[in-house]
């Protein structure tokens, strides 16, 4: 099996791309990514060298912060990409196929970014082998790891198949279902925590799936629009299905956000005050900025620039949404004593923020470099 | 109630009896008499010093609840160790079985296995768990040897030398001082309780003081509605 | 070379070997573990606590030359195997990196020191030279000692040998002095320390102010909770719902400064309704008719107006209390320097106890076991003081010991005689004496101020020489004698050797004595020999004491009066003096009279203060375990009032007192329903200003910083500190 130029960038073109970058012709986004990557990995190095005590602001009150948020955010995007791939291929075969390899590439790198963020937050990353030798089938987190392994395997396979033009619908279906199960499991990882009213809900796995579809769709649309802007001359308009996916995604997001809020507000168990506390954020960022505005933008604008802007807006507001979700569960402490405030605040440390930046940069850097190296171009010699 | 005799002596006798049985025949439990708890916080600091817990970590905080309005106010203190739930929400979520319920009812954490994912912290409805991320009271640079000494928790030796030394990187919580109990000593919070409000013993032993105390009293278990079946019984 | 392998090493090696050999899936526990399996044994060293003066027995557990843990010593009557919230935090003080490490000489100004590290020889040489100098030029009586704590005994001994007669302590005239005097005037003796409060056997307890639980007098807290569990009724008189008030049958949120009105109304009701213990009063007391006559104006209705308590409650508590006599106690707590008429308030409390026959009765104030340990045998006699030296506390005829403020006043004015040097052992005068300006002025007049401390506390900043004592876990010390129902002797021994260059007091004083030519007074080789000598003199088996930490001698006398027992009280009349002829002779009210104290003007609150259960004054505010739990104090304020003022819970504010002084520090607002609307409350000990105390410096506000005035109890010289008013200043 040949990898160069098909699954991985062609060596010669990669070298060319690196040369370009060296000579300052990489383009602003690439340099920014590189900078982010450098700073981010420096911070990650610090986290491992100095330990969490000196680098992170998570605590017993807020055990999960921006690193877990980043993780959740990117795995959801990764799933979303798998969904886009699936629905694209099913409903828009011809129109979609030029984008397929980009989409699956994104699915892989976002998953990678997610794991990097996750790794920075484990207390003892060196002990991950206990997942193998001491598995706990009762734990959603254990199942998550199992499904992830499967998911990664299958999305890589799907990607390779696409690149090698040996697309198998079976693998595609499998990828879709594994994705559904994996992110459902992630949803249950939160949703099954009975002690946190903010998480505890049967709706949460569904919420995660919908959000995955929206954010994955947004990233894909963004990438497609950027692509479309690069080649304005060729006249072929951006396929409409990206917009359609986004509209559907926004509808689903509205549904999930709204009902999670409504059910939450109606709750009277300890901790459900958190819904009230995050009410403004949910309404303003989650619904207004996150759904209504993007929807209007989609209606009002045409062409790549509008789509780029909308995609970015969705990605940004949804990150905020993920953060609100993860951290929101800790807003109301389960037990108050000494100076524990009634409402817990959490501000990520610079190191934690840099982990996010590292993850974002990793995705954009890998994508940009591979794009430059022509990885996503139709494979020469083989007719698509 | 037992007031004339030293209740610590009575409970030590109970403990001796319990330790003669096999482990699975014992059922450790704790009762806290809120009528007697005076909010002195001795249990909190006793536990801190017994288990050499780092800054910010309290296995047994004491909550002060103010109820009503001046001048019709009342005040209640609620000390909160780990409830050693019979149906804990913390153990099933642990992906690597680092935390588990032992046959005598102690919810253990294996400091050698724990990967520090903090899922158990999220899952415990009592906020009983903490993550040891490696803080030192006296600062990383000046850290005093006291802070890296072994606390003997779980009867093992762990020294917090660097952040790659457990229990740093792990979840931690109250373990009913099982390292003391198995040597025939009562839990530190019991022996130091100024209000004589804390009882410890074998719930399977009908003759034990703790059983006598809870039998007579008006008792409740904290957030019992969650189905966690706590082994800490509060008396009001 | 010796290649014997230690057990630790052996375990490490075998542990690693097993780890390497066993398959992870078979023995996952062992796999890649750093841990050894068998913990070492800890060596127990019995000693006693000095985080407050209660001196509870404790057992330090030592490993590799480190104290790793501590536990209570079950043999100790004052602790009974339990330690309070502070006592448990011993290691936070022992291993505090901010401790004083070596002797220091101030080359800068007092208050703005520039420290020069000195050797012990240099520092002690300097102190000795100056003391010699002063002795020659001004006489030994111009040196004063302030001391609080066990090691003070060595310093007192040194000072007596030197010829100084002035030894004062803030724990008297700023603390329990008024109570001790009030009770002594009435019963001929005081209630001691630990107090002879028989809470465990009481059927009815009244606490005036005393906030047990927060005030963590170890065995006393245990006793009161035991008493309550056995069914005792409790009434707590406190403007604030204290921890113990939360357990009370009656909480009386009295208007501050009006306690005497309540007490006098109770006395009136009890005598008028003849609820007192007539037999007891007849047998032991004098002055009932005078008392009855003197209290007639204090009707419950009048008291209700003064105290803002419901008249029914006032009457009801008095009747219930009387119904349970004699197994009752009206407790004066311990801290009593409140409003300037404190001796009289304490007298009123004593009188109530007398009327109800609680002195010497179960559940009242028991009679302590006698006992004592002689001083070290065969010491040379102390030089007698200069004849005709004017009495320091002449103005306060009933002062039981020298008052800190008289020494301070004399240091400023030179009257009745001047002071040239202060030795300050374990007292933080800057924070514990009211009137900081006066303290500073007095210090400015001195030729020498030596602070013997363990921490760079506020006072050390005013010292010329700072001598670092080692902490209580690192030293031999004087014996601690506990007079409860049994007599106990506790000894202190080092669990570990002193950190840094710190030294125990027995050593410092001996070295100083040698340099002052007083070596004969310190014949012991070391602390242990001193203790052996005293034990020999007291017929105590030293080795037993060392092994147990505390030995107890059961009381030879009964803690209670037997029926119809003849008893002579140590008063001029030999009786309990309801009416005090002594006071009358000196022009004071023989029966307490109510005086009305000023109440805060509109917009101002009275400053009340008390104790945090997790701190002892400022001595623990830098203890890293305790500072972790309570890093600063907070400003308790009634929630309704706070809302009116627009103060958020948790926000930082400053305080400004009636003299216009604005606090340098800030304090966090704590909304509460537990407090009256006319006062604010804070715990004492914060507002430390010493940059070397890295955890405590600049945290919160000290109540003493807000004292614009204090009044002095004319009977015994106690300084009343609760007569200050502040307004809350919102921070921009
Ligand atoms: N944890 C801890 N315990 C300690 C100490 C410590 O520093 N920390 N210090 C020890 C020492 S030296 C002492 S002297 C004792 C002091 O302890 P106590 O003798 O108990 O002191 P009080 O001043 O009587 O108690 C303070 C209470 O008095 C109330 N109060 C204030 N003003 C008034 C008033 O006008 N009338 C009435 N009725 N009540 C009022 C306050 O609201 C507060 O609750 O504590 C000892 N115990
Ligand atoms: N404004 C105001 N003033 C008060 C009070 C108040 O509540 N408010 N409380 C009053 C009361 S009740 C009292 S008893 C007095 C107490 O007043 P002080 O007798 O001055 O007692 P502390 O404040 O405990 O000061 C103790 C000093 O001793 C040091 N020290 C601690 N341990 C040792 C040791 O082992 N050796 C040596 N050499 N030094 C040691 C500490 O570092 C600290 O500097 O203050 C009184 N003054
Ligand atoms: S209290 Fe929390 S940590 Fe303890 S057993 Fe129950 S669920 Fe687990
Ligand atoms: S933090 Fe440790 S004990 Fe808790 S769930 Fe994770 S691995 Fe298990
Ligand atoms: S039982 Fe032990 S570990 Fe648990 S709270 Fe008490 S002292 Fe701490
Ligand atoms: S030690 Fe006892 S009385 Fe004190 S706070 Fe703890 S449980 Fe309550
Ligand atoms: S009461 Fe507390 S601080 Fe005081 S001596 Fe006893 S244990 Fe130590
Ligand atoms: Mo005091």
Task: Describe the protein in words.
The complex is a heterotrimer of chains A (384), B (236) and C (732). By secondary structure, chain A is mainly alpha-helical. In chain A, 71% of the residues lie in helices and 0% in strands. Chain A has 14 helices and no strands. Chain A is globular and about 65 Å long. Chain A starts with 10 loop residues before the first helix and ends in a 12-residue tail after the last helix. Chain B is α+β, with helices and mostly antiparallel strands and 236 residues long. Chain B has a single domain (4-235), classed as 2-Layer Sandwich (Alpha-Beta Plaits), CATH 3.30.70. A 4-stranded mixed sheet of chain B has the order 8-1-10-9. In chain B, strands 2-3 form a two-stranded antiparallel sheet. The radius of gyration of chain B is 18 Å and the shape is globular. The two termini of chain B are 14 Å apart. Chain C has 732 residues and is α/β, with parallel strands linked by helices. Chain C has 4 domains: 7-94, N-terminal domain of TfIIb (Single Sheet); 99-169 and 401-469, Rossmann fold (3-Layer(aba) Sandwich); 174-368, Dimethylsulfoxide Reductase, domain 2 (3-Layer(aba) Sandwich), CATH 3.40.228.10; 605-730, Barwin-like endoglucanases. Chain C has a 7-stranded mixed sheet with strand order 5-4-15-14-13-6-7, covered by helices on one side. A 6-stranded mixed sheet of chain C has the order 21-23-22-27-20-24. In chain C, helix 3 packs across helix 16. The termini of chain C are far apart. Chains in contact: A-B, A-C, B-C. Chains B and C meet through helix 2, strand 2, strand 3, helix 5 and helix 7 of B and strand 3, helix 2, helix 6 and helix 20 of C. Bound molecules: ligand MGD (2 copies), iron/sulfur cluster (5 copies) and molybdenum atom. Residues 52, 86, 171, 175-176, 208-211, 215-217, 237-240, 242, 254, 256-257, 259, 333-335, 338, 608, 610-611, 613, 615-617, 681, 722 of chain C line the site of one ligand MGD.
């Amino acid at each position: 099996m040949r990898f160069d130029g098909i699954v991985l960038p062609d060596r010669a073109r990669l070298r060319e791309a690196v040369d370009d970058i060296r000579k300052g012709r990489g383009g602003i986004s690439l340099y920014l990514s590189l900078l982010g990557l450098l700073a981010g990995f420096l911070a990650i190095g610090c986290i491992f060298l100095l330990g969490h005590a000196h680098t992170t602001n998570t605590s017993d009150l807020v055990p999960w912060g921006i690193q877990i948020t980043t993780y959740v955010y990117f795995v959801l995007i990764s799933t979303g990409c798998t969904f886009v791939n699936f629905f694209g291929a099913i409903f828009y075969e011809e129109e979609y196929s030029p984008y397929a390899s980009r989409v699956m590439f994104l699915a892989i790198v976002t998953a990678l970014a997610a794991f990097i963020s996750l790794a920075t937050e484990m207390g003892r990353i060196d002990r991950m082998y206990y997942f193998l030798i001491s598995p706990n089938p009762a734990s959603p987190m254990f199942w998550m790891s199992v499904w992830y392994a499967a998911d990664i395997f299958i999305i890589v396979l799907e990607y390779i198949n696409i690149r090698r033009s040996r697309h198998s619908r079976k693998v595609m279906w499998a990828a879709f279902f594994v994705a559904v199960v994996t992110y459902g499991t992630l949803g249950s990882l939160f949703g099954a925590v009975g002690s946190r009213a903010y998480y505890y809900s049967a709706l949460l796995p569904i919420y995660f799936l919908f959000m995955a579809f929206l954010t994955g769709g947004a990233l894909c649309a963004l990438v497609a629009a950027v692509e479309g802007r690069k080649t304005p001359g060729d006249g072929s308009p951006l396929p409409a299905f990206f917009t359609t996916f986004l509209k559907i995604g926004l509808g689903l997001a509205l549904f999930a956000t709204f009902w999670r809020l409504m059910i939450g507000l109606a709750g009277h168990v300890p901790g459900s005050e958190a819904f009230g506390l995050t009410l403004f954020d949910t309404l303003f960022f989650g619904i207004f900025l996150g759904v209504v505005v993007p929807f209007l933008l989609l209606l009002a604008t045409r062409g790549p620039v509008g789509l780029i802007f909308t995609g970015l807006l969705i990605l940004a507001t949804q990150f905020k949404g993920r953060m609100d979700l993860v951290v929101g569960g800790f807003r109301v402490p389960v037990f108050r004593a000494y100076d524990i405030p009634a409402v817990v605040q959490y501000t990520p440390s610079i190191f934690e923020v840099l982990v996010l930046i590292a993850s974002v940069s990793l995705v954009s850097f890998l994508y940009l470099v591979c794009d430059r190296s022509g990885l996503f171009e139709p494979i020469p010699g083989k007719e698509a | 109630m037992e007031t004339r005799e030293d209740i610590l002596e009575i409970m030590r006798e109970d403990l001796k009896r319990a330790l003669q049985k096999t482990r699975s025949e014992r059922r450790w439990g704790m009762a806290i008499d809120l009528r007697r708890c005076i909010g002195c916080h001795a249990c909190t600091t006793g536990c801190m010093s017994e288990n050499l817990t780092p800054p910010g970590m309290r296995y047994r905080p004491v909550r002060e609840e103010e109820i009503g309005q001046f001048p019709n106010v009342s005040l209640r203190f609620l000390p909160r160790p780990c409830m050693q739930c019979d149906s804990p929400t913390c153990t099933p979520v642990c992906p690597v079985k680092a935390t588990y319920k032992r046959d005598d009812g102690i919810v253990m954490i294996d400091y050698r296995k724990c990967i520090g994912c903090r899922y158990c912290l999220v899952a415990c409805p009592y906020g009983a768990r903490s993550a040891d991320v490696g803080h030192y009271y006296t600062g990383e640079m000046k850290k005093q040897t006291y802070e890296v000494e072994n606390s003997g928790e779980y009867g093992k030796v762990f020294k917090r030398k660097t952040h790659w030394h457990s229990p740093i990187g792990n979840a931690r919580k109250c373990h009913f001082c099982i390292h003391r109990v198995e040597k025939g000593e009562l839990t530190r919070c019991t022996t130091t309780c100024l209000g004589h409000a804390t009882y410890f013993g074998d719930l399977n032993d009908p003759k034990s003081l703790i059983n006598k105390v809870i039998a007579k009293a008006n008792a409740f278990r904290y957030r019992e509605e969650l189905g966690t079946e706590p082994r800490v019984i509060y008396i009001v | 070379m010796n290649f014997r392998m230690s057990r630790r090493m052996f375990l490490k090696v075998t542990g690693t070997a097993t780890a390497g050999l066993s398959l992870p899936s078979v023995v996952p526990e062992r796999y890649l573990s750093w841990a050894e399996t068998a913990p070492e044994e800890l060596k127990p060293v019995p000693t006693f606590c000095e985080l407050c003066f209660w001196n509870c027995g404790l057992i330090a557990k030592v490993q590799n030359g480190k104290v790793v843990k501590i536990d209570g010593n079950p043999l100790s009557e004052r602790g009974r195997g339990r330690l309070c919230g502070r006592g448990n935090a011993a290691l936070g003080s022992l291993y505090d990196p901010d401790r004083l490490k070596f002797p220091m000489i101030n080359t800068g100004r007092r208050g703005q020191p520039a420290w020069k590290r000195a050797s012990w020889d240099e520092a002690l040489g300097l102190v000795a030279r100056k003391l010699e100098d002063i002795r020659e030029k001004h006489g030994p009586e111009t040196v004063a000692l302030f001391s609080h704590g066990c090691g003070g005994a060595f310093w007192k001994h040194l000072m007596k040998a030197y010829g100084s007669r002035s030894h004062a302590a803030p724990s008297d005239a700023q603390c329990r002095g008024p109570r001790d005097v009030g009770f002594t005037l009435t019963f001929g003796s005081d209630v001691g320390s630990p107090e002879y409060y028989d809470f465990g056997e009481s059927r009815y307890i009244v606490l005036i102010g005393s906030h047990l639980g927060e005030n963590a007098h170890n065995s006393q807290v245990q006793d009161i909770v035991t008493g309550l569990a056995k069914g005792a009724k409790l009434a707590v008189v406190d403007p604030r719902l204290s921890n113990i008030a939360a357990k009370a049958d009656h909480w009386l949120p009295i208007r501050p400064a009006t306690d005497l009105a309540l007490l006098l109304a109770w006395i009136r009701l009890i005598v008028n309704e003849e609820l007192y213990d007539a037999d007891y009063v007849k047998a032991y007391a004098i002055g009932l008719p005078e008392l009855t006559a003197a209290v007639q104006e204090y009707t419950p209705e009048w008291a209700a107006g003064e105290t803002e308590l419901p008249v029914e409650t006032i009457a009801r508590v008095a009747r219930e209390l009387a119904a349970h006599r004699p197994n009752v106690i009206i407790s004066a707590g311990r801290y009593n320097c409140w409003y300037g008429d404190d001796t009289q308030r304490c007298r009123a409390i004593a009188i109530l106890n007398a009327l109800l026959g609680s002195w010497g009765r179960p559940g009242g104030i028991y009679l302590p076991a006698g006992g004592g340990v002689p001083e070290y045998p065969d010491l040379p006699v102390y030089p007698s003081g200069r004849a005709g030296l004017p009495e320091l506390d002449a103005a306060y005829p009933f002062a039981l010991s020298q008052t800190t403020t008289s020494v301070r006043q004399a240091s400023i004015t030179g009257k009745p005689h001047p002071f040239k040097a202060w030795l300050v052992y374990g007292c933080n005068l800057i924070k514990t004496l009211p009137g900081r300006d006066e303290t500073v002025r007095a210090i400015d007049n001195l030729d020498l101020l030596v602070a013997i401390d363990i921490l760079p506390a506020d006072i050390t900043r005013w010292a010329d020489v700072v001598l670092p004592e080692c902490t209580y876990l690192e030293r031999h010390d004087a014996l601690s004698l506990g007079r409860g129902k049994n007599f106990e002797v506790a000894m202190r021994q080092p669990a570990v050797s002193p950190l840094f260059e710190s030294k125990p007091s027995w050593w410092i004083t001996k070295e100083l004595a040698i340099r002052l030519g007083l070596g004969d007074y310190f014949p012991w080789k070391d602390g242990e020999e001193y203790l052996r000598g005293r034990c020999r003199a007291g017929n105590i088996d030293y080795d037993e004491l060392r092994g147990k930490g505390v030995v107890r001698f059961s009381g030879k006398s009964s803690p209670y009066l037997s029926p119809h027992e003849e008893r002579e009280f140590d008063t001029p009349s030999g009786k309990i003096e309801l009416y005090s002829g002594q006071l009358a002779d000196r022009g004071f009210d023989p029966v307490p009279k109510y005086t009305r104290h000023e109440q805060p003007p509109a917009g101002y609150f009275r400053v009340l203060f008390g104790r945090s259960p997790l701190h002892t004054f400022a001595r623990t505010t830098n203890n890293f375990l305790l500072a972790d739990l309570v890093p600063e104090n907070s400003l308790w304020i009634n929630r309704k009032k706070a809302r009116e003022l627009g103060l958020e819970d948790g926000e930082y504010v400053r305080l400004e007192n009636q003299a216009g002084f604005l606090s340098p520090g800030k304090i966090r607002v704590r909304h509460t329903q537990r407090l009256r609307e006319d006062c604010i409350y804070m715990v004492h000990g914060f507002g430390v200003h010493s940059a070397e105390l890295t955890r405590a410096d600049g945290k919160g506000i000290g109540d003493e910083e807000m004292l614009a005035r204090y009044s002095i109890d004319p009977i015994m010289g106690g300084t009343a500190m609760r007569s200050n008013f502040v307004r809350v200043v919102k921070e921009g």
